[in-house]
């Protein structure tokens, strides 16, 4: 497997000996992970491997039991989720968290407002508002301009997942965590998602958790394989895809995860 080589610059994300325990259960054990600015990383593994727990520790949804997390050089281990968001960290979830009674554009506008200085304003925005213009650009980025004025409840499931990506892009994030964005999508919708993710600005790095290995390997520069709360293997997409141990674990040869 190809080892990561430090560029000598500040890492976007750095985890050192991160563990998370729930009583006697060790969901994560001694995770060391380094992701460089602009890097696109896939985290793969069977159900129960610890992937979502890893995301929860990174975002501050709950703190690690041990270890340290640094975000662009700053120790954020004890920071609540909102402080990490203010520093440019974003996340999507497995279950859609959208305002289904509002339009696509309204959802993205509210996401932009929520990370702006005017987030406590109750004034209705004018069409000429810079935040509205930003929201329109983000809607276009995720290929939803044709349905910008459509109520979210009327969108297909795939379009709702695209909308989540737009909302994660609000406020000029520096790094995004995508939690199974292709889950439940049709083959056509998955191709659309791949186009969106590969078309994101180069300076925005991300980690994607994804059960669809084909999607994950197409949108990532490097892959981390997890098993039983630990890092099992790391390497470039082609190396991971061809590794016999990974194939045995990921394709059903080991159900212990």
Automatic annotation (TrEMBL):
Organism taxonomic ancestry: Bacteria, Pseudomonadati, Pseudomonadota, Alphaproteobacteria, Rhodobacterales
GO MF term list: ATP binding
Keyword Ribonucleoprotein: no
Name of this chain's protein: ABC transporter ATP-binding protein
Xref: InterPro entries: AAA+_ATPase (IPR003593), ABC_AA/LPS_Transport (IPR051120), ABC_transporter-like_ATP-bd (IPR003439), P-loop_NTPase (IPR027417)
Domain ABC transporter residue range list: 13-253
Top-level taxon of the source organism: Bacteria
Pfam family, one: ABC_tran
Keywords: ATP-binding, Nucleotide-binding, Transport
């Amino acid at each position: 497997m190809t080892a990561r080589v430090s560029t000598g610059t500040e890492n976007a994300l750095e985890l050192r000996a991160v563990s998370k325990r729930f009583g006697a259960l060790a969901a994560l054990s001694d995770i060391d992970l380094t992701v460089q600015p602009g890097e696109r990383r896939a985290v793969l593994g069977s159900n129960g491997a610890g992937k979502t727990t890893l995301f929860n520790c990174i975002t501050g949804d709950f703190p690690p039991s041990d270890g340290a997390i640094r975000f662009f050089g700053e120790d954020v281990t004890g920071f609540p989720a909102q402080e990490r968001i203010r520093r440019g960290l974003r996340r999507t979830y497995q279950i859609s968290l959208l305002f289904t009674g509002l339009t696509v554009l309204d959802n993205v506008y509210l996401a932009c407002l929520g990370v702006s200085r005017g987030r406590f304003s109750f004034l209705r925005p004018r069409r000429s508002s810079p935040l509205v213009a930003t929201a329109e650009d983000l809607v276009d980025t995720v290929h939803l301009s044709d349905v910008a004025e459509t109520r979210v409840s009327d969108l297909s499931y795939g379009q709702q997942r695209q909308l989540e990506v737009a909302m994660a892009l609000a406020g000029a994030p520096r790094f995004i965590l995508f939690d199974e964005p292709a889950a439940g999508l049709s083959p056509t919708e998955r191709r659309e998602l791949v186009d969106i993710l590969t078309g994101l600005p180069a300076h925005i790095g991300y980690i994607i958790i994804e059960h669809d290995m084909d999607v994950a390997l197409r949108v990532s520069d490097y892959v981390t394989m997890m098993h039983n709360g630990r890092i099992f293997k790391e390497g470039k997409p082609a190396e991971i895809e061809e590794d016999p141990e990974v194939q045995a674990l990921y394709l059903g040869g080991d159900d212990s995860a």
